[in-house]
Design goal:
- The protein is mostly helical.
- Helices cover 41% and strands 8% of the residues.
- The protein is built from 7 helices and 2 strands.
- A two-stranded antiparallel sheet has the order 1-2.
- Strand 1 and strand 2 form a beta hairpin.
- The termini are far apart.
Length: 129
């Protein structure tokens, strides 16, 4: 399009914007997403692909900035979690697994003064699990 006389000035380009857009769309569609991504990576300046939710998780910059981290779950399996992108001291937060259902019930009840017999009775009564 650089040498196309229909677009060789800003005025002509604006006047034929829909034609230019159509040509650009056809040129982009003629190559694969992977090809376009590879070409963009050789350029200087701001750009980013329009990723879906799954692709964002595998973005190299997301990984390099620590926005996706690995934690070990209760069954000792590795799981990936999205970390907080907010960093006040330039240090990503340390993430740990979430507790399993009722994992800390007994500890919390002891902490508020319940005896083991009372905890058992609460479970029998269905008030605690």
């Amino acid at each position: 399009m650089i040498t196309d006389q229909r677009f060789d000035s800003a005025e002509k380009l604006f006047a034929r914007a829909s034609d230019a857009g159509e040509l650009i769309a056809k040129a982009i569609a003629a190559k694969t997403y992977g090809y376009r991504l590879g070409r963009l990576q050789t350029l200087e300046g701001q750009w980013a692909p329009n990723n879906n939710a799954l692709e964002v998780g595998y973005d190299p910059q997301v990984r390099a900035n620590g926005y996706v981290v690995t934690v070990i779950d209760a069954e000792h399996n590795e799981r990936e979690l999205v970390s907080s992108p907010v960093q006040f001291d330039e240090t990503p937060p340390t993430l740990t697994r979430a507790p399993q259902f009722a994992e800390h019930t007994d500890d919390l009840l002891r902490e508020i003064g319940r005896t083991q017999d009372e905890i058992i009775q609460l479970k029998i009564d269905g008030a605690a699990t």
